């Protein structure tokens, strides 16, 4: 039969793969939230500047 030590490399690979997947998932969500917020703030500033000049 197989011993547990033979699976350590495979388990390490799965762990790193899973951590990488969730990190990518988090970063994609965070970066899109950040870009959306920055765009919205720039739009609000531009709108306020336009109202001020009128």
UniProtKB/TrEMBL annotation:
Superkingdom to which the source organism belongs? Bacteria
Query: Transmembrane stretches, by residue range?
Result: 7-35
Protein name in UniProt = Uncharacterized protein
Which keywords label this protein?
Answer: Membrane, Transmembrane, Transmembrane helix
Q: Where does this protein come from, organism-wise? A: Flavobacterium cellulosilyticum
């Amino acid at each position: 039969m197989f011993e547990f030590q033979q699976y350590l490399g495979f388990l390490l690979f799965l762990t790193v793969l899973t951590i990488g997947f969730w990190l990518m998932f988090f970063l994609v969500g965070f970066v899109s939230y950040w870009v959306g917020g920055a765009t919205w703030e720039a739009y609000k500033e531009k709108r306020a500047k336009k109202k001020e000049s009128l």
